[in-house]
Amino acid sequence: MRPGAGPGAPEAKPKSFGPSLKRLLRRLAPEKFYVGLIVTLVIASVVLNTLGPYILGKATNIVFDGLVGKQLTPYTGMSKDEVVETLRARGEGTLADMLGAMDVVPGVGVDFSAVGRVLMLVLALYIGAAVFSWLQGYLLNIVINTTVKRLRGEVEDKIHRLPLRYFDSSPRGDVLSRVTNDVDNVSQTLQQTMSQLLTSLFSVIGILIMMFWISPLLAVIALLTVPAAVVVTAQIAKRSKPHFVNQWKYTGMVNAQVEEAYTGHEVVTAFGRNREVGEEFDKRNQDLYDASFKAQFISGLIMPAIMFLGNINFVLVALVGGLRVATGHISLGEVQAFIQYSRQFSQPLTQIGAMANLLQSGVASAERIFEILDAQEQSPDPAVENARPVDRGRVEFEAVSFRYEPEKPVIERLSLVAEPGHVVAIVGPTGAGKTTLVNLLMRFYELDAGTITIDDVDITEMTRDHLRSRIGMVLQDTWLFKGTIRENIAYGDPDASEEDILAAARAAYVDRFVHALPDGYDTVIDEEGSGVSAGEKQLITIARAFLAKPSILILDEATSSVDTRTELLVQHATAALRRDRTSFVIAHRLSTIRDADLIVVMESGRIVEHGNHERLLAERGAYYRLYNSQFAAAASDA
């Protein structure tokens, strides 16, 4: 990890809610046909649902008119107009106005057949609305899962295009949290909000139309609470968003802490730092709790506030509506329908308010995903690759300079030539730039100045895949995936035959211990290499590198994890397998590189000495001091 990197590294400032939401929704564009069909089905479902109360009001009118008509039995034989005039003559003007607006026949009761027909029509409308709703839910599920699948694939592809510098400066747990937790949260947010938001939006439009159709006065009264609801929602959402951003930021930090403590559990236990690790976890866990509590509590105020405003609206509509019925300006069924619309009108607003916290959380996660997608990628491979062969393995560093950070030089104007088939050992104190030199050869990082060539071909004129296919690398930290020993070795060349795999295993002395395992080469090991020792894991990774048949071999402290006997076996194996290969060996134990063709001594990013073992000892310089310090330390330990 480069200096200054780690869990405390500053994060990019989160984007605003609006642009991030728009960007998230634009990711649905490839599914625009289905989106259009979903919108059509939502509109159809909303229209049918919206017509239901109005038509149901007709049934109420039929029942109410029938009941009133039955009460007018003394006036049987008279027309409605005659009854109204009679009532006015008696001074019962209010009752006369109400009867004038009704469709009654004096002495005739409820027409239940008409009520049945209306109810069957309403039932058909609701069944149709349910079918359309189910269809749009089914299609929406396809759209969202396809979109999230594509998003997850883009993040995975982006990870492979990011330079090593990005991972050096980002906590691994936080990156994993973005790729897993945040993507899942975006998926859940879209699943739970998109359909409801569409339905709520079109429901509001449809309900408004019906409300104004029934009574413009009552519609205006009902709309008085809308501005208040909008202001309340906006203000609460504004205050909750920073806490949602912090919630997912702290989630990533907690994941990073847990991942770090888990992978380093043995070290933590050995040094007795369990209490300190626990305290650090408790602190970050508390930060996550505080952010989550504030986010959920503040956003949770939206729904109660909107419900309160909706109840005020209901009281006003019921009061004014009753007065309008009494004066004959509106029918009872229309008031009933309007009250239903009024409640339905507040319901979408309430649902939007309830979804605000989900939406805030999902957009906060989307922002974290977009930060990965927007991260600067490694420089592109050449459009036209240099077709010259690079099989000899001559490597030349010419005036190479590199810095992790602008103000801290790591390598300055370094020049080095490794001839084909030679073993080049790179030694020096920690931080001298040994591993950095290898990383530059592999193009894990790009040069600040100078060139690196293989067989006189600039490595920047080669694709990274081609370059790395010519290089075999064995690191100090072994890496095995879950699978059989055979599969782990074959990772070096997926097309290798069984004979090639066994030959590589024998050359790396894997064959010697594999037969003692229960299932031999079919023995399954997990990601941590459980079931085999540290030295055996290293031998497997060496066999993997040898199977790749590279032109250039890199051993970065490859024998540091093996015992003395195994180290001797590895040295014999590498001596046989590095024939006709250029080999770079990074070693702290100088006894392992005595037979190197060229030993390069580095200090502070510069080559201070180079030559073979005998020559460098004779010069009594930096190599001589390093060599003697190791043997002096060994003698004192003995």
Automatic annotation (TrEMBL):
Gene3D superfamilies: ABC transporter type 1, transmembrane domain, P-loop containing nucleotide triphosphate hydrolases
Main location (coarse class): membrane
Record-annotated ABC transporter domain positions: 395-629
Location in or out of the cell: Cell membrane
GO MF term list: ATP binding
Transmembrane segments: 33-56, 118-144, 197-214, 220-237, 301-323
Domain ABC transmembrane type-1, residue spans: 37-361
Keyword terms: ATP-binding, Membrane, Nucleotide-binding, Transmembrane, Transmembrane helix
Annotated membrane topology: Multi-pass membrane protein
Entry-linked PANTHER family: ATP-BINDING CASSETTE SUB-FAMILY B MEMBER 10, MITOCHONDRIAL, ATP-DEPENDENT PERMEASE MDL1, MITOCHONDRIAL
Protein's UniProt name: ABC transporter ATP-binding protein
Species of provenance: Nocardia aurea
